[in-house]
Write a structure and sequence with these properties.
- By secondary structure, this protein is an alpha+beta fold.
- It is built from 13 helices and 15 strands.
- A seven-stranded mixed β-sheet has the order 8-7-12-13-14-11-15. A three-stranded parallel β-sheet has the order 1-2-10, with helices on one face.
- Helix 1 packs parallel to helix 9.
- The protein is globular and about 60 Å long.
- Regulates the GDP/GTP exchange reaction of most RAB proteins by inhibiting the dissociation of GDP from them, and the subsequent binding of GTP.
Length: about 375
């Protein structure tokens, strides 16, 4: 291959396709390579036959699940913040002309064996049993500060430099108790573990602001949106964008060097009902904070259905996922699985998490990490 390129992108997963699309739009000459002979990588969406072939070999899917073509099962399901950076990129690049999105119906959090709706407005916040009356007042003062905070306007800082004080110190200033800290840090700021408490508070404040802005954008039951027909539509859309602007694709090429940094365990569950205690909504995310489970990192439950064109009417697909922390990965998922009710069919998958081994500042080669749960 004699041609020269401004950039070589390895892998056609979501992050890689976004990068390829954006840089092609900026008129850089991009070569996009993948070890597989198909697009999407770990971000692909599979129909029922493809899913069974991947995990069950020659076994056929059970007939009661319905037609294979009615399913689009994400390998790495992720809801998107409605006002997040990815949505802004979609709008900026006009990739939205290739995609259709729909709001996610609800967001819940696990506390002491039960699930509670994450409040989506002031009325729900007042009625919520997640916090007691006095704690709600303290939390309200904190949220007022977050909502008015402007990084460029020192008058909104209340004498604090959020780049230097820790998140724990910020919470202490407002007298928030451990349950509220757990709720804010994991259900609103979406941190995966408690390391954020010792880190500068600015990042957490920005994350909570983003949650509120995303709630306001569509005024639905959650701050999330999700593409119709599954997340696998996204890398394909950005690949089309790159190709339109001159990007070159080469599939079936050698892999790059990476190291394993952990494992993820997940259950892909097929059900004939919505998740109990979620008001019978068709799409939902439930976060199980680490402290509630005695873990080092959070567990996630993700559920979608016919409302996002990922399953036939009357069928629901739920994912329960977590980082592996013991020698019994499947047993770690029990708290999340217990929330689902009757499960028609279940697939357990354990896969490695990798990160690159090269030093990008030396070889100018930037390799993305894998998706976490």
């Amino acid at each position: 291959m004699d041609e020269e390129y401004d950039l070589i992108v390895l892998g056609t997963g979501l992050k890689e396709c976004i990068l390829s699309g954006l840089l092609s739009v900026e008129r850089l000459k991009v070569l996009h390579m993948d070890r597989n002979d198909y697009y999407g990588g770990a971000a692909a969406s599979l129909n029922l036959n493809q899913l069974w072939r991947k995990f069950r070999g020659q076994e056929k899917p059970p007939a009661f699940l319905g037609s294979s073509k009615d399913y689009n099962v994400d390998m790495v399901p992720k809801f998107m913040m409605a006002n997040g950076a990815l949505v802004r990129v979609l709008v900026h690049t006009d990739v939205t002309k290739y995609l259709l999105f729909k709001a996610v119906d609800g967001s819940f959090v696990y506390k002491q064996g039960k699930i509670y709706k994450v409040p989506s407005n002031d009325v729900e916040a007042v009625k919520s049993t997640l916090m007691g009356l006095f704690e709600k007042r303290r939390a309200r003062n904190f949220f007022i500060f977050v909502q008015s905070y402007d990084e460029e306007d020192s008058r909104t800082h209340e004498g604090m430099d959020l780049r230097t004080i820790s998140t724990k110190e910020l919470f202490s200033k407002y007298g928030l108790d451990d349950n509220t800290i757990d709720f804010v840090g994991h259900s609103l700021a979406l941190h995966r573990d408690d390391r954020f408490l010792l880190e500068p508070a600015l990042d957490t404040v920005k994350r909570v602001k983003l949650y509120a802005e995303s709630m306001a954008r569509f005024q639905g039951g959650s701050p999330y949106i999700y593409p119709l027909y599954g997340l696998g539509e996204l890398p394909q859309a950005f690949a089309r964008l790159s190709a339109v602007h001159g990007g070159t694709y080469m599939l079936g090429k050698p892999d790059c060097k990476v190291r394993r940094v952990g494992k993820v365990v997940r259950a892909i569950c097929f059900m004939s009902h919505p998740i109990p205690n979620t008001d019978d909504i068709d799409s939902v995310q439930i976060i199980l904070p680490q402290k509630q489970l005695g873990r080092r990192s959070d567990m996630y439950v993700f559920c979608c259905s016919h409302s996002h064109n990922v399953a036939p009417r009357g069928k629901y697909i739920a994912f329960v996922s977590a980082e592996v922390e013991t020698d019994a990965p499947e047993a770690e998922l029990e708290p999340g699985l217990a929330l689902l009710g009757l499960i028609d069919e279940r697939i357990i998958d354990i896969y490695d998490m990798y990160e690159p081994v090269n030093e990008s500042s030396l070889d100018n080669c930037f390799i993305s990490k894998v998706f976490f749960p």
